[in-house]
């Protein structure tokens, strides 16, 4: 901690200013949290769970996003030959002595005063603070250890882009959710529902113990928090053992500079395919046009419904599923876009699974932020956040099943497309109907796979809102099943039809 204040003058000034801002923010937050003692029990519980969950999640996400270097990296101690288990325990205890943890501890104690003022037991408050702080420390330790295993020599723009996507996927839905709430002097029911859900998750369970609505809810939160701590502890001890028993592969910045996605993704066949696909999706006009058309077409799909008299609250629910459907459908002919470059995959003996999964990475990275914006916006305009699980389930079913079916169609029924460098609006003449059949079957199959989720989503709109969770689980289950089966079948067909695929690439 003191070593962070050593170095050249600019470094010391930056650290000192940052420390001053952190102390000021901590004092400001403590004053506001202390004021919760005069509030009602429900408001205090909701603020505690939401704030605690956000802080806990921050301990997991901050290390990779900031690319911070761990001063307690287990590999620093390898030169003295320590045993993995004692070292892991010592580093875990040392992890409690850090500025972020001390800030959380101060804020948690301030909250505990408000809890006791609301009638919470002192013992329950202590248990909540201990489990909450230990969870934060373990998440930070595990996150930094994972970063030490995969750390790159520099923060490339590609890696920063991935981090921005991850932040966007989390921040935008939360921001839209909070912005749509109506604050009228009481805690909105949506926030109460969100706090109840977070109280049963690993990031929020520890913070809900003191002010749990019942003894059973408190016991359940304790169980979830203890299981979370146990699993994180096992992961930490395993990672320390891995770090001490493996030698990091030396990486030369000069040799890897300019490799783009190939320097970021794993050096495996699947990682190489994903890196190559990402380069194409972000640079080739044919891919870019397809991606840009999807959200535009989805938004314009509402206009006929609105003109026909459908209420805007219902019409706004249509674009998100359409985006999911078309994004899952986009890779249905991805092999044809490779043209003769397909020979690299076939000649190098890439396994079908590596090829199928690697090619899906770009569309997943594009779909996540688009859906993270479209779904919350649709639900906010719709006005019923209880319908959000249903919309997520429908989108998951359409997107995942589309990816699975596309993995089969692109191998079994590829059709000619515009060649590299040609206009994306220039389409070659086709002698057969295979391309039309492939497009139609992938899209129709995705809708059929999502039919159960669509049915329960409709029930959630028209009758029982509880069906929204049935739509969520049915959509996730059906989408995951079709995705796994589609990738497996597509992998087998890719290895079996390698010669035919090469003939198709040469002919088109």
From TrEMBL:
* Keywords, in A-Z order: Membrane, Transmembrane, Transmembrane helix
Membrane-spanning intervals of the chain: 12-36, 42-66, 87-115, 121-140, 160-179, 191-210, 217-239, 259-275, 287-306, 312-330, 360-381, 387-415, 436-458, 470-492
Mind telling me what this protein is named?
A: ABC-2 type transport system permease protein
What is the source species? Answer: Microbacterium mcarthurae
């Amino acid at each position: 901690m003191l070593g962070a204040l050593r170095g050249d003058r600019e470094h010391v000034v930056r650290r000192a200013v940052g420390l001053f801002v952190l102390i000021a923010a901590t004092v400001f937050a403590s004053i506001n949290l202390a004021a919760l003692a005069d509030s009602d029990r429900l408001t205090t519980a909701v603020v505690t769970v939401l704030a605690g969950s956000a802080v806990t999640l921050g301990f997991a996400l901050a290390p990779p996003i900031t690319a911070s270097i761990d001063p307690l990296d287990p590999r620093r101690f390898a030169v003295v030959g320590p045993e993995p288990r004692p070292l892991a325990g010592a580093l875990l205890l040392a992890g409690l002595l850090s500025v972020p943890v001390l800030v959380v501890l101060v804020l948690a104690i301030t909250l505990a005063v408000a809890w006791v003022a609301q009638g919470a037991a002192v013992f329950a408050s202590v248990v909540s603070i201990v489990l909450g702080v230990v969870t934060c420390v373990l998440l930070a330790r595990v996150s930094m250890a994972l970063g030490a295993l995969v750390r790159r020599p520099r923060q490339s723009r590609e890696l920063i882009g991935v981090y921005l996507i991850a932040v966007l996927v989390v921040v935008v839905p939360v921001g839209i959710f909070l912005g749509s709430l109506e604050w009228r002097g009481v805690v909105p029911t949506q926030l109460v529902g969100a706090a109840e859900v977070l109280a049963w998750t690993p990031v929020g369970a520890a913070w809900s113990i003191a002010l749990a609505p019942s003894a059973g809810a408190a016991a359940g939160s304790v169980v979830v928090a203890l299981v979370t701590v146990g699993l994180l502890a096992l992961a930490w001890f395993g990672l320390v053992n891995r770090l001490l028993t493996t030698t990091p592969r030396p990486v030369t910045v000069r040799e890897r500079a300019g490799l783009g996605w190939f320097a970021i993704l794993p050096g495996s066949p699947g990682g190489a395919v994903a890196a190559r696909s990402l380069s194409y999706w972000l640079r080739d006009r044919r891919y870019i046009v397809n991606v840009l058309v999807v959200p535009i077409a989805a938004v314009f799909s509402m206009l006929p419904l609105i003109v026909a008299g459908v209420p805007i609250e219902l019409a706004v629910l249509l674009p998100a599923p359409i985006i999911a459907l078309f994004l899952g459908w986009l890779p249905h002919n991805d092999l044809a876009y490779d043209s003769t470059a397909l020979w690299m995959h076939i000649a190098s003996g890439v396994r079908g699974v590596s090829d199928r999964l690697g090619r899906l990475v770009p569309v997943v990275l594009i779909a996540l932020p688009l859906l993270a914006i479209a779904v919350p916006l649709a639900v906010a305009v719709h006005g019923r956040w209880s319908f959000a699980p249903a919309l997520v389930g429908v989108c998951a079913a359409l997107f995942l099943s589309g990816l699975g079916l596309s993995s089969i169609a692109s191998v079994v029924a590829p059709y000619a497309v515009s060649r590299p460098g040609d206009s994306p609006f220039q389409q070659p003449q086709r002698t057969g109907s295979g391309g039309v059949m492939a497009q139609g079957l992938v899209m129709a199959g995705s809708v059929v796979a999502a039919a159960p989720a669509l049915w329960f989503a409709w029930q959630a709109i028209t009758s029982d809102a509880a069906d929204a969770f049935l739509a969520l689980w049915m959509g996730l289950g059906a989408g995951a099943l079709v995705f796994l089966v589609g990738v497996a079948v597509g992998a087998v067909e890719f290895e079996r039809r390698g010669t035919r695929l090469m003939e198709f690439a040469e002919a088109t």
